[in-house]
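Slide 14.
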Amino acid sequence: MANILVIDDDTAVLATVELVLKRQGHEVITTTDAYAGLGRLEQASFDLVIVDIFMPEMDGLETIN
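Slide 15: predicted structure.
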């Protein structure tokens, strides 16, 4: 299965996405902050990154650029 990083400032959304993906057998790492997410990307490789578009400080579009 896939190794997935989920970045979203809403903890309820993170918990829901994490639950659904883990039930499908995926490894899931979550973070509530774009900067922390970028740090995770430097530490490990992921098959998929799911990013919230509307986040404070650095939005999702800035994060993926």
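Speaker note: The chain has a mean pLDDT of 96.
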